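**Polypeptide and fold**
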Amino acid sequence: MSKKLEERLDRLATSGESGILAGGLRGIEKESLRVSADGSFSMRPHPAALGSALTNEFITTDFSEALLEFVTPACTSTWEALRFLCDIHQFTYDRLDDELLWVTSMPCSIPAGRQIPLARYGDSNVGRMKTIYRNGLGYRYGRNMQAIAGIHFNYSLPRIFWPLYQQQEENYDLTDVFRSNAYLGLIRNFRRMGWIVLYLFGASPALCRSFTGESSRLAMPELTPDTLYEPYGTSLRMSDLGYSNNTQANLNISLNNLAEYIRDLSNAINTPEPAYEKIGLKVNGEYRQLSTNVLQIENEYYSSIRPKRVARSGERPTAALRRGGIDYVEVRSLDINVFDPVGINQNVMRFIEAFLAYCLLSDSPPFDDDSLDVTGENQKLAAKHGRDPDLELIRRGKPVLLREWAREILDGVRYVAGFIDSDGGTSDYVNAVDAQAELVRDAEATPSARVLRELENTGTGFYEFAYNMAVGHKNYFQQLEPLAPERQALLDNAAEASLQRQKDIELADSITFDEYLAKYYASG
């Protein structure tokens, strides 16, 4: 553990304030693919009983009509967030008829790419823009990749933390500037060390052959005729088989200060890309994508973690960051854990929270392009070979065994966890870190190893295994006690009101889509 981290925590401990690290906000966004009763990709439209995907704050869709996204509010405890996520699942299952929610990040029974239905958001300009953006993603990266599901963990440190931390750091910047720089330091360290999230929580070491289509470039071993896998894989979702593409591989967005981050994202949105120009912007009068530039919009930039601020209506993400700085971070590298009914548990959330605080409080030197590239290579290695006991990553220009580096990280995270626990008089966060330390000692206890062991022990393919688990999870939610009346009313009202809000938005449009799109890009 670094001396700087220890000094910072000691100063916070002697401040006399309580809740310095324990009172932050956390929220979950969880994607779940709808499948038919036989496990095949659902071709049905978004269920009307779930409300409008455009305006329901709790249940929306991601790339496809079949790819649901559940969104919890920002909660003051991990249990509150987990409980809300569980309730959304239960509410949804009550309205899916005979359909299931797929319970792994990697999909199965994928139809031919162009047959995967795009998410639809109605006839408003904003609704059309969301669908066209997804159409562009399909042309650029393939629709199969967009059917992958994951979990995003949103986190902000307590408000009380910032003035105290800034005073102790003897920093005299504006509060928004100091907070943004501190969050960017967190993000840089997460990029350096975030491979540990793939090792500990990756749960996608195998995939269905249907996901690869007719690709012949995958020289992966077969577990069954329909299942490909990596023997030491942790998260194929986060490897070059999942969320990756050649164009963005050369796109280094600065994380050294907020102005550079916004500048680089804006440049990518305004820089033509020859490969995308070949796709075309409009063909036979229909948009294929929002633009032919490197990025259509900010959200197209794939990253394991993002700086965030809640945008106002019609406000672009970079404009929101320019207005008020970074307010929270979004961790995007968590696989769905097939062994948890909602895909995540409190131990995972507590560890991630302590790990993020550790990243923020540890020294975080600026990146150059080479050091940023190294973080990407380390992520790929951990994703495809993370459980190999001899796997080495690169740290400060030198090779280091993954398991040795992991132990060093966990020592520091445990120290932070103890500080968080001290406010509540519990050992919940330390216990969460200790549980992950066991996974470093025994790679066979990781979720990815458990998935492969289940496949090997049962002799089943990935599809059959995931399907059986999906049936079991559906039974679990259907056997729960009915939702509390106030939660049932909240979700019912949100679904019903969202349908009317979508109609209101459509009726309020007063300009053409071409004008709307031009105005949107001009607002950046």
In short: Residues 140 and 228 are 24 Å apart (CA to CA). The two ends are 42 Å apart (CA to CA).
